[in-house]
Specification:
single chain; alpha/beta; Rossmann fold; 6-stranded mixed beta sheet; 31 helices; 21 strands; 13% strand
């Protein structure tokens, strides 16, 4: 993505709709006067008095125990420097977002307009009763060191400066595994470091704790080697000063075992990499440009083990592997600090997880057949769902063993289940699908490219590396929209099926359609005429392999958009019906609705086919389908056509497909409430599970249900996903948003990948 395009996208992202990235959501009922009297006056007085008598009860009656403050003064924001507290707020909100989605920790971001250390510390101390933990962020060195140390000494809640310790923890895990692969002793390796800021120093201190010899560490700042001859070193840098010969970075790199870069891009060249010892380890962590380009570095040495801070290369040293789970573990035992023991426990947990067999959901997200421990997997992938129940318990145990836990965990099995349950609050489906799509982008033809929203979504898909757009429509009109909105789509082909230059292709496509429909009343002349229509032409492009996916429907009737694809491409072998499915993204995870768009009143056999289609698709997303066959009746409680129909579908599914978790007929409230179905119908396969896939008796019920849920809960919806086509075709609903279109493009690309 170009800088100009990225800037526009980022500004739109942060300013559109509700401003910013986070909000406060009530966790208790508030609809009645009684609710309000309990939430505030007079009922609120009782928990206040309880806390007054016993201060620790604040953890029992308030959100303190799951609330972290992300605090900055804006003096060292990302690579932007000292831009002030207000300008740092988008970053702090973003950090809050990551806390929530990866570990279900709530965050208030606090931006403090203060650079004086004493005043800053006093301010944080004064507001600390609100929070269960403090995450310091983007505070410049060396002030950051003193601020953190003082707060750790003076507060009895976890405090961590993530800029320092986050990178230190992740890179330490990477170092342990890289050294194991390189067959090198940690006490003997020579380490060269470019960068001497807070992050670099924290990394080195942790490396020392792991066994690196201080005499073997050579640290360079912007003025050269941290050396005893220099008189410009503060106390923190003096700790790492070298004696003897004053070396250049190039000289120090010769014969070195490990390079750690936390400075600026492109300061290491090929010759430096060549000069390193056997099986060298390079952590080039400057962003966005590493100290040496990944591809350049690996072209020099085939024995190189390398990590960067970038997501487009193996071994991404990403702080998100650490801080959400470190705070999760610390909060869950009410730790009074995040100490060295806890950080080292996180290091070893992350390192150990990288050696474990990788689940299919991670392989799928990264479009890999089998990710395994080795030079390109020395740390886990950021999307690995196991991180929370590997790292958090390790940190919690270390807190207990080191004596800083106020509420030790006794039932570790129950704790792990609780952590896994929290994952449902963080729906990773779209992130996983996007990551998978990026690994192998496909050609997507847009049959209605003369619409701004289509072109905008196509641009986003192109920039993210999800798809290679092909634009259908009047070239002049498409180019006008591109120019008007400054969309960088110049390298995307534009095809107008009606123009003379496409006559040969129209004839070729017409012959294909004619061969399939000549016994269904179509003449060759009519087929040639049809191929002037974009939906027919786009369908033929997919059928012949000129495109991999077709996207249409934003401006025309749903059935009119499907018909060309059905005639040109057709349905999967063995199927008589296609179906439409929506995915609704909820806090508890994705819920799949079908059929929502195609079949008006499907028969029993058709519903069985639909159920099987949906189950197959859900499994492709690496989710175990738990299917409810919905009706107004519960297991024979009422009679009627729909109830009898769904009852029969259940019987057939149980008899012919016992491997699938499915039951019915069942009312919707019972289906989605595992406790309710367990209490009343313990015999059901849905007992203690709850359904994540809902099959409706007819189109009216399915369409009404998903639209009501979507609008009334403001739940994000993905769809409609067309199931049962021989090749990927996805038809949008009229008026789909850019985000909805982008989601459908992603689904379409993954659809292609899953068919291989």
């Amino acid at each position: 993505m170009g800088k100009k395009s990225l800037k526009k996208e980022a500004l739109e992202y942060h300013s559109s709709g509700r401003k910013g990235k986070i909000e406060v959501i009530p966790t208790k009922p508030y609809s009645s006067q009684r609710d309000l009297s309990l939430a505030y006056s007079p009922g609120v007085a009782d928990p206040c008095l309880e806390i007054s008598d016993k201060k620790d009860d604040v953890y029992k009656y308030t959100a303190k125990g799951n609330l972290v403050a992300v605090i900055s003064n804006g003096t060292a924001v990302l690579g932007l420097g000292d831009i002030g507290p207000e300008a740092s707020k988008p970053v702090m909100e973003g950090k809050g977002l990551l806390f929530k989605i990866f570990s279900d920790i709530d965050v208030f971001d606090i931006e403090i307009n203060e650079t004086d250390i004493d005043k800053f510390v006093d301010t944080v101390k004064a507001i600390s009763p609100t929070f269960g933990g403090i995450n310091l962020e983007d505070i410049k060195a060396p002030e950051a060191f003193e601020i953190e140390e003082r707060l750790k000494e003076e507060l009895d809640i976890p405090v961590m400066h993530d800029d320092q310790h986050g990178t230190a923890i992740i890179s330490s895990a990477a170092l342990l595994n890289a050294l194991e692969l390189a067959k090198k002793s940690i006490s003997k390796v020579k380490v060269v470091v470019s960068g001497a800021g807070a992050s670099a120093q924290s990394c080195l201190k942790l490396y020392l704790s792991l066994g690196v010899n201080k005499k073997n560490i050579f640290v360079f700042d912007s003025k050269g080697l941290i050396h005893e001859s220099r008189n410009d070193l503060d106390a923190t840098k003096k700790f790492f000063q070298q004696k003897g010969k004053n070396l250049t970075l190039k000289q120090a790199m010769s014969g070195s075992d490990v390079f750690l870069g936390l400075s600026k891009g492109d300061i290491v060249d090929k010759a430096m990499i060549k000069s390193m010892s056997k099986n060298p380890i390079v952590f080039a962590l400057a962003n966005p440009n590493p100290e040496i380009d990944y591809n350049l570095a690996i072209s020099v040495r085939d024995d190189l083990i390398m990590a960067t801070g970038r997501s487009d290369h193996p071994n991404q040293v990403n702080n998100v592997l650490g801080f959400p789970y470190i705070f999760r573990g610390a909060l869950d035992v009410r730790a009074t600090a995040i100490n060295e023991e806890m950080k080292l426990a996180a290091v070893r947990a992350i390192a150990d997880l990288a050696k474990e067999p990788v689940p299919d959901v991670v392989n799928e997200a990264y479009d890999a057949k089998s990710i395994s421990f080795g030079p390109t997997q020395i740390i886990p992938k950021p999307l690995d769902p196991r991180l929370i129940h590997w790292v958090a318990p390790a940190v919690a145990k270390a807190a207990i063993d080191s004596g800083v836990a106020k509420e030790p965990i006794t039932n570790w099995g129950a704790y792990e289940l609780e952590l896994k349950k929290r994952l449902g609050l963080d729906n990773k489906l779209i992130r996983n699908l996007t990551s998978k799509a990026i690994r192998s982008p496909k050609k997507v033809v847009f049959a209605e490219a003369d619409h701004y929203k289509i072109l905008k979504a196509a641009l986003m898909a192109k920039d993210e590396g999800i798809a290679k757009p092909i634009l259908l429509g009047k070239k002049q009109r498409i180019e006008e929209i591109i120019e008007e909105y400054n969309l960088d789509l110049a390298d995307c082909p534009i095809i107008d099926p009606r123009t003379d230059d496409q006559a040969k292709k129209r004839d070729e496509f017409a012959e294909i359609l004619y061969s399939k429909r000549k016994r269904r009343g179509l003449t060759l002349y009519e087929c040639k005429k049809m191929m002037r229509e974009r939906n027919y032409f786009a369908s033929a492009m997919v059928e012949t392999g000129m495109a991999d996916v077709m996207i249409s429907g934003i401006s025309r009737n749903y059935r009119d958009s499907i018909r060309p694809a059905l005639q040109v491409i057709g349905v999967e072998d063995g199927l008589n019906k296609i179906a439409g499915m929506y995915i609704l993204i909820t806090k508890e995870g994705p819920i799949f609705f079908a059929d929502t768009t195609v079949n008006i009143n499907p028969s029993v056999d058709e519903l069985v086919d639909i159920t099987l289609l949906v189950a197959k698709t859900v499994k492709q997303y690496r989710i175990d389908p738990k299917i409810a066959l919905l009706s107004y009746s519960n297991f024979g409680s009422n009679e009627g056509n729909d109830a009898l129909k769904m009852r029969e579908v259940a019987r057939i599914m149980h008899e012919k497909h016992p491997e699938i978790t499915v039951d019915g007929e069942i009312q919707a409230n019972f289906a989605v409430n595992k406790d309710l179905v367990s209490d009343f119908f313990p015999f059901s396969p849905l007992s203690n599970k709850g359904a994540n896939t809902l099959i409706f008796p007819n189109l009216s019920a399915g369409n009404i249900a998903y639209k009501l849920v979507k609008e009334m809960s403001q739940t994000e919806a993905i769809g409609p996903i067309l199931l049962g086509m021989k090749k990927p075709v996805h038809v949008l609903q009229i008026g789909s948003s850019v985000r909805e279109i982008l989601n459908m493009i992603t689904i379409g690309v993954v659809d292609v990948q899953n068919r291989k």
